[in-house]
Write a structure and sequence with these properties.
- By secondary structure, the protein is of the alpha/beta class.
- It has a 7-stranded parallel beta sheet, sandwiched between helices.
- It is globular, with a radius of gyration of 18 Å.
- The termini are far apart.
- The structure holds nicotinamide-adenine-dinucleotide (NAD).
- The site of nicotinamide-adenine-dinucleotide has 29 residues, from α1, β2, α4 and α6.
């Protein structure tokens, strides 16, 4: 029996890119990991390797392969996490969700104006992208709040990009989702504080980072070339840069940073060209 608080990180999009790097970094720092991801076939081998690595670091690991925007699956996932919490409490520990990271990459990369309707955005593509990449953040945080899983020291991060305020030809739908995501972060920050939860939420604006999600953007190669010229550090952002920032911002002393958009990009955003 011990009375130690038991920190868990809930990583939405844990199997790749920034979510994976952050899962590994937080596990090394002492958090148990609940990873939500959406993967098929070959990618599942990688997920098994990741889970084994996290467990080898001595952490409790719960990974669930599901659509993070599905209401029933979200409830079932939180039930599963709740069972882990109940087991920890029965053992005298005090589990809480220390970190939530919303790092889902799942959107339509099509322009608005096309001659062929199938080549452009439509209601389904627009709403699916908004739902996964922006609105799902609100529903996860609502459920965590209602279940009493957030507490003093809970730190929530939502991944945004420069695309929330800039245009790229194929990025219009995701761009609108990122703008909505940043707005959701502000609203949640105010409500979490007023409710006296002790939890904070911020958006992390990563620079251009070489991940599977970037490679799906039709303009990816051009974006990489521009970034290499423009980023004053002379390199792109890495998933590890983001993971390091989230570990630091989840540590003691960061509890008054709330509702902001924080760049993790080596100065890319402030460098015009
Ligand atoms: N790569 C960049 O240049 C860049 C820059 C700034 C912000 N971002 C943002 O960072 C976040 C993570 O991007 P990444 O580059 O690490 O992507 P990635 O493709 O490497 O990882 C995406 C993760 O999301 C999961 N996922 C996707 N759709 C899902 C769904 N419906 N339900 C559950 N899981 C789902 C995948 O399984 C995977 O674990 C995204 O929101 C992205 O827009 C990326």
């Amino acid at each position: 029996m011990s009375n130690a608080r038991e920190p868990w990180a809930l990583i939405l999009g844990a199997s790749s890119g920034m979510g994976e790097a952050t899962s590994r970094a937080l596990a090394a720092a002492g958090d148990n990991i609940c990873g939500i991801h959406l993967d098929f076939r070959a990618a599942l081998t990688h997920v098994e390797e990741l889970k084994a690595d996290l467990a080898a670091a001595g952490r409790d690991v719960l990974f669930i392969n599901m659509n993070a925007a599905d209401d029933e699956k979200r409830a079932a996932a939180l039930d599963q996490l709740g069972e882990r919490f109940a087991a920890a409490r029965a053992d005298g520990r005090e589990p809480f969700v220390h970190v939530v990271m919303h790092s889902l990459a799942f959107g339509s990369l099509v322009p608005f104006l096309t001659q062929e309707p199938k080549d452009g955005v439509d209601r389904k593509k627009m709403e699916m992208t908004q739902d996964v990449m922006a609105n799902s953040l609100v529903y996860w945080v609502q459920d965590l709040y209602r279940r009493g899983m957030l507490g003093q020291g809970s730190r929530i991060f939502a991944m945004t990009s420069e695309g929330s305020t800039r245009v790229v030809p194929s990025y219009g739908v995701v761009s609108s989702a990122k703008a909505a995501l940043e707005s959701h972060v502000r609203q949640l920050a105010m409500e979490l504080a007023r409710a006296g939860t002790g939890a904070t939420i911020n958006a992390i604006r990563a620079g251009v980072t070489d991940t599977p999600a970037l490679r799906k953007i039709p303009e990816a190669q051009q974006m990489i070339e521009i970034t290499m010229r423009r980023n004053p550090t002379g390199r792109m952002t890495t998933p590890q840069d983001v993971a390091n920032a989230i570990v630091a911002l989840s540590g003691p002393g960061a509890g008054f940073i709330n509702g902001d958009v924080i760049s993790v990009d080596g100065g890319e955003f402030i460098t015009g060209s």
